[in-house]
């Protein structure tokens, strides 16, 4: 019984990985080197995969910089976070989750996996359109038509265990599952120590604070 | 008024490109180096893009071999064609069109294009699940939710002008539009001359024959 897990090396995907493991799946993590500024997360993904002693960890390399349009792949400055902001931020990477899920679907078909775990979150989600529950529902529908597995009615289902959790609940779930949160990174800047001021750092710190745990990773300030 | 065109360098995508050009769009072709056996098609895609003097041609490089599961990317032999076959052939690349369309959607968003042209075909389609009209319909739905453009109601629409055409009709349309069919390749083997025996070559030859035109490319036999 296999499950593909989208593993970025960040907090959410690592907690998601712990959920798939707890559910008894043989997990096959998939990670992406897409020209992201914070490529350091790939080393974290590798460390998390090693922690769970997976048999196979798939790394997809792709030059999403050729598409452009994001502070995470272009030479646009990553802004300091603003928790009140309502619009889609410059760190949004056009169609990224759609692209990632599409690869995961292809891998699920080849590996004969029945689940794809993705740590999208509709609560503390930074305003990305492709983290919304409606997006996930629509992807499930296209997945049923996109593959040979779909034709043969061996449905591959998306699992989004973090969908309706707050960041604090995600941290608490990870702690309960013994997820290796000390091996994760969340900072968009990609430095050795987290910046503590970007959107992603702010959300993470708030999550740990509200959950009542100390964040085990290092911050600059 | 811009349109993204998925351009493989094959017959169908080149005819599709000619349709987008005829419709008056400034076209931005996107091509993929995905570890395909027939990478020669990329040179053809470049030649077709040059023929149309496009301002920008995006090449996405990605190691789809890491996913495996196809004769087009793995070291599995490409079989001789069988026009009567009903099942999904080994040349099927898991989730390929879904992956390609996802990139095209991201590019459309960045380029502010209103259309994505893809030369899928439901008639002479080699049995690939991701060429079916149902798949295209479902992708349109996920596209509306996956992007910032979707949130802002600047809908990006898929155009599939070849959907219900026979190969002969595709050839005839290409000839009518003055598409550079002499610059295209269709063979899965990827040799300098087309093999003339794989699925793709058989379909192409049948199309030219039925349309009453000579195929301008070279064949081994």
Automatic annotation (TrEMBL), chains A, B:
<keyword id="KW-0067">ATP-binding</keyword>
<keyword id="KW-0479">Metal-binding</keyword>
<keyword id="KW-0436">Ligase</keyword>
<comment type="similarity">
    <text>Belongs to the QueC family.</text>
</comment>
<comment type="function">
    <text>Catalyzes the ATP-dependent conversion of 7-carboxy-7-deazaguanine (CDG) to 7-cyano-7-deazaguanine (preQ(0)).</text>
</comment>
<feature type="binding site">
    <location>
        <position position="198"/>
    </location>
    <ligand>
        <name>Zn(2+)</name>
    </ligand>
</feature>
<dbReference type="Pfam" id="PF06508">
    <property type="entry name" value="QueC"/>
</dbReference>
<dbReference type="GO" id="GO:0005524">
    <property type="term" value="F:ATP binding"/>
</dbReference>
<dbReference type="GO" id="GO:0016879">
    <property type="term" value="F:ligase activity, forming carbon-nitrogen bonds"/>
</dbReference>
<dbReference type="GO" id="GO:0008270">
    <property type="term" value="F:zinc ion binding"/>
</dbReference>
<comment type="pathway">
    <text>Purine metabolism; 7-cyano-7-deazaguanine biosynthesis.</text>
</comment>
<protein>
    <recommendedName>
        <fullName>7-cyano-7-deazaguanine synthase</fullName>
        <ecNumber>6.3.4.20</ecNumber>
    </recommendedName>
</protein>
<feature type="binding site">
    <location>
        <position position="195"/>
    </location>
    <ligand>
        <name>Zn(2+)</name>
    </ligand>
</feature>
<dbReference type="InterPro" id="IPR018317">
    <property type="entry name" value="QueC"/>
</dbReference>
<keyword id="KW-0862">Zinc</keyword>
<keyword id="KW-0671">Queuosine biosynthesis</keyword>
<keyword id="KW-0547">Nucleotide-binding</keyword>
<dbReference type="InterPro" id="IPR014729">
    <property type="entry name" value="Rossmann-like_a/b/a_fold"/>
</dbReference>
<feature type="binding site">
    <location>
        <position position="187"/>
    </location>
    <ligand>
        <name>Zn(2+)</name>
    </ligand>
</feature>
<comment type="subunit">
    <text>Homodimer.</text>
</comment>
<dbReference type="GO" id="GO:0008616">
    <property type="term" value="P:tRNA queuosine(34) biosynthetic process"/>
</dbReference>
<feature type="binding site">
    <location>
        <position position="201"/>
    </location>
    <ligand>
        <name>Zn(2+)</name>
    </ligand>
</feature>
<feature type="binding site">
    <location>
        <begin position="7"/>
        <end position="17"/>
    </location>
    <ligand>
        <name>ATP</name>
    </ligand>
</feature>
């Amino acid at each position: 019984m296999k499950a593909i897990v989208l593993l970025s090396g960040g907090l959410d995907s690592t907690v998601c990985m712990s959920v798939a493991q707890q559910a008894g799946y043989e997990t096959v993590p998939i990670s992406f080197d897409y020209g992201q500024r914070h490529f350091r997360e790939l080393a974290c993904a590798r460390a998390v995969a090693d922690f769970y002693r997976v048999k196979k960890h798939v790394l997809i390399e792709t030059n999403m910089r050729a598409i452009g349009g994001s502070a995470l792949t272009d030479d646009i400055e990553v802004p300091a976070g603003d928790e009140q902001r309502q619009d889609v931020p410059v760190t949004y990477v056009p169609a990224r989750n759609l692209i990632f899920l599409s690869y995961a679907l292809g891998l699920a078909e080849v590996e004969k996996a029945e689940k794809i775990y993705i740590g999208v979150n509709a609560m503390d989600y930074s305003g990305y359109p492709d983290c919304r529950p409606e997006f996930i529902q629509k992807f499930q529908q296209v997945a049923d038509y996109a593959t040979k597995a779909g034709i043969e009615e061996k449905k591959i289902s998306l699992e989004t265990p973090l969908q309706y959790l707050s960041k604090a609940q995600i941290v608490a779930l990870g702690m309960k599952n013994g997820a290796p949160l000390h091996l994760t990174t969340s900072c968009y800047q990609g430095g050795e120590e987290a910046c503590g001021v970007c959107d992603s750092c702010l959300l993470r710190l708030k999550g740990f604070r509200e959950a009542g745990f100390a964040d085990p990773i290092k911050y600059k300030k």
